[in-house]
Design a protein that fits this description.
Length: about 150
């Protein structure tokens, strides 16, 4: 099935969300509602492929976060892995924080010296600053680093 925003909204309008959308995809109710809200944003013109492709990272982030159920982490994952934007540093992602701690041998301000997205934001950003405007590359390396066997 081609799950375009129009196809998703057609499923919703026919009242068979559980049978044709949520259950087959294994979605939680919250994720299902988010996908419907995202589809409605496309239908209403608040979002489009062109907006997502041609707008700045900040503009895309703001537009996507206006959709109920989409937060900063989801936006960062979209910009990094789907849009392949070049300067994305997803501070909310545990792998980014763990990778930074491992590579630069630093302790964070979180429990047991763990890196904390809020408390260690400035530290993490400063560690990745030499990679700017290509911080997506350092982000990819953090994922690889945390997947390595010690």
């Amino acid at each position: 099935t081609n799950l375009t925003p129009q196809a998703i909204l057609s499923i919703v309008r026919n009242g068979i969300i559980e049978e044709d959308l949520r259950a087959p995809a294994g979605l939680s109710n919250a994720k299902c509602r988010c996908i419907i809200a995202l589809s409605e944003a496309f239908e209403g013109g608040e979002l489009s492929d062109d907006i997502l492709k041609s707008s700045s990272d900040e503009a895309v982030s703001k537009k996507l976060q206006n959709v109920k159920g989409i937060g900063p982490w989801s936006v960062d994952m979209f910009l990094l892995f789907e849009s392949h934007r070049k300067n994305i540093l997803p501070l909310g992602d545990l792998a980014i924080r763990n990778g930074a701690a491992k590579l630069w041998k630093v302790k964070g301000k979180g429990r047991n010296g763990r890196m904390c997205a809020q408390k260690d934001k400035d530290l993490i950003e400063s560690l990745h600053e030499p990679f700017s405007p290509y911080r997506s590359i350092s982000s990819y390396y953090m994922y690889q680093l945390v997947d390595e066997k010690d």
